[in-house]
Give the backbone structure.
Amino acid sequence: MRSTPEVEDLLRRNAPQVLGALVRRYGHFDAAEDAVQEALLAAAGQWPSEGVPGNPRGWLIKVASRRLTDALRGEEARRRREERAAALTPRDAFTAPPPGERAPREDDTLSLLFLCCHPDLTPPAQIALTLRAVGGLTTAEIARAYLVPEATMAQRISRAKQKVRGVRFGRPDRWEQRLPSVLQTLYLIFNEGYTATSGTALQRPDLAGEAVRLTRTVHRLLPDDCEAAGLLALMLLTDARRDARSGPRGELIPLDEQDRDRWDKAAIEEGVALVTRALSRGRPGPYPLRAAIAAVHDEAPSPEATDWVEILGLYDVLVGLVPGPVERLNRAVAVAMVHGPRAGLSELDALSGTLKGHRLDAVRGHLLERAGEPEAARAAYESAAAQTLSLPEQRYLLARAARLKGQRVRHGHDGGAAASGLALGSDRVGAGCGRRGRADPLGSGFHGVSGAVRLGADEAPRDS
């Protein structure tokens, strides 16, 4: 019998706790992770028909412990007798609490995330290991999500586990310095789920949902960390538009054409509350700033009501913190929405040669179209379509190019409605005609979010 969604959710929520219990008792992260996967598969096969046990986590720990000890004994049988005794002795760092002593109350999810996002691992390896060890996904599920053969993903995960073999389990020293890599890994998982980089589907909701779930856990464990709160807010505010982003045939629907009644109002409300609290705690970092931008979009009742002046102010602060090419590209869109497409095109010229992929040409095509240069815009769209591996994005860009065939040059057109989220093959940047002066777009008590952010940045000491 196939596993039910309720059982799958229960297994994923318990997976990091079960793995943490085994690693604390036995060590051997790589073997323990395999044993937990076997226990999860056994539960997925039995629980839907036989019923969920009264203590699901205890059941999983018991089954996984048996699988792990069997595996360790089998391995030791191939070694010399004196080595076997030493290898089966629990490591000091991983020793389970003695009888009568309470186990640590701390959720092991964060410790596992630090381990899976170890700096010795590449980002793809960090993502794969996080989804398997912390998310509880099978190798086959991860391989399908990233459109690679299962054998390839299995090899990637195996190499990752070997690299972190012997790493002490628990929060690392100076863990605050390692937290950004954990948040970045979760952000990358979410981005791939929200806008797939390749394949026939625009979105992979299972990946986006898993990223939200894991980030929510991190925020629960670190409630005072503004970056974790900001990342959760960003995910909620972005994912709130999921149902409106694609049509019945899976086609991309840009932000300014979406039915806003289909946006998830509860997710928007939660995201706005999170980012409001994060911004009120002092100098904001990149994730709260990105979340604030998403909140301005989500709270606009229509594309025409979007406060692009506010968004540009937030991007100015963000680019000051993270002057990367993607952030500068998104800022160029906001510049175009406030000051016109020619101003945006000037910003794009400075990015030539610094940004790979189709997005630069996609943005250029939209701004050229708004500037009244249909032939140049069509060429840019076609160039972008040739570079993307996402079929929905490719179809959208080619459709934009086809609309421009035979059009005459139009001078001075400055509308810009399509020059934002459409251009990126995503609605994260947003769309709509600019409107000036909407105060307090978050309902947060600030007189404009960007003004509050700049005030906080001016008052806080600057990093050298």
User: Anything to note?
Assistant: The first strand starts at residue 198 and ends at 199. The radius of gyration is 25 Å. Confidence is low (pLDDT under 50) at residues 80-106, 411-426, 428-464. Residues 5-26 form the longest helix (22 residues).
